[in-house]
């Protein structure tokens, strides 16, 4: 099976792509998100109940992004490489709220397009005006809206459970026009992202490949699943796809990626 190089590529990324950079994934074995129940820190009700806790939770995560040990890994860089080398657009939809894709250079100087569908840690939003502001460091109930000067009206710019995702129109356009769909490091447990693979298949007959440590809840929808750490499998896949002996044969590229995972041990 081949893919046409004139067709765009859509990539969906999840917490797994940042795991090798030292950012924990959401669904740990204990079902908690860094020690908290998800409904306490990722729902509008949780924020209404205890805004101080929710602000603290996201402030800690935002500040952690400044830790010099947290850096983009080889998988983030591989996507930039793909965007530079693929002749058609490479469009990345990320569920991640960290900034590792952009720090790797994605979406910069023509290297692909990037959409944060679940928001961004480095931004806050006014509860009054709905406007979004860049933010660094801590944010709490005493923080001042840089635009209105009001106190206590800011919330994290994060899509919580029960809230609408960001960029729906753009995502809809992208999923209607792609020859290859890649899903990297996501469990497929959260909608609508879990349904993107089906859309790409049904709306534009895209070839669909999953990269994950292991099979997920949506693996059956993919043409091929490459198991292993994305920091090893993705660079090998991209190199094979972009310049391999038979660049249009994505299955050959998947086999090369699998071998890279096996060699890494
Ligand atoms: N390489 C590839 N995949 C990996 C790696 C790795 N190095 N490490 C972990 N994974 C995989 C795990 O096997 C798992 O399938 O990444 C996935 C992470 O799953 P989740 O923690 O559920 O994260 P994600 O799918 O991104 O969550 C989606 O849920 O809580 C909400 O809004 C939040 O954006 C988040 C959404």
Mean pLDDT: 92
> What is the succession of H and E elements?
EHHHHHEHEEEEHEHEEHH
**Helix segment count?**
10
CATH topology of the largest domain: Rossmann fold
Strand content: 15-25%
Biggest sheet: strands side by side, in what order? 3-2-1-7-8-9
Q: Strand pairing plus helix content: what structural class?
A: alpha/beta
Which architecture of the largest domain would the CATH scheme give at its second level?
3-Layer(aba) Sandwich
Ligands bound, unique: adenosine-5-diphosphoribose
Task: Tell me the CATH superfamily of the largest domain.
Answer: TPP-binding domain
What's the count of strands? 9
Largest sheet, described in full? 6 strands, parallel
* The CATH class of the largest domain: Alpha Beta
Helix content: 25-40%
Our Rg estimate from Cα atoms comes to 19 Å
Parts with pLDDT < 50 across at least 5 consecutive residues:
none
Shape: globular
N-to-C span: 29 Å
What does this entry show, briefly?
This protein has 265 residues and is of the alpha/beta class. Helix content is 34%, strand content 17%. The chain folds into 2 domains: 9-22 and 72-118 and 166-264, Rossmann fold, CATH 3.40.50.1220; 38-68 and 120-158, SIR2/SIRT2 'Small Domain'.
Characterise this structure:
The chain has two domains: 9-22 and 72-118 and 166-264, TPP-binding domain (Rossmann fold, 3-Layer(aba) Sandwich), CATH 3.40.50.1220; 38-68 and 120-158, SIR2/SIRT2 'Small Domain', CATH 3.30.1600. The protein is 34% helix and 17% strand. The chain has helices spanning 16-19, 38-41, 44-49, 51-64, 74-85, 100-104, 168-175, 196-204, 230-243, 250-264; strands spanning 9-13, 90-94, 113-116, 119-126, 132-134, 154-158, 180-184, 207-212, 224-227. Helix 5 (74-85) runs parallel beside helix 9 and helix 9 (230-243) runs antiparallel to helix 10. The model has no long low-confidence stretch (mean pLDDT 92). It binds adenosine-5-diphosphoribose. The site of adenosine-5-diphosphoribose has 24 residues, from helix 1 and strand 8. Adenosine-5-diphosphoribose is lined by residues 14-16, 19-20, 25-27, 38, 42, 95, 118, 185-187, 189-190, 211-214, 216, 229-230.
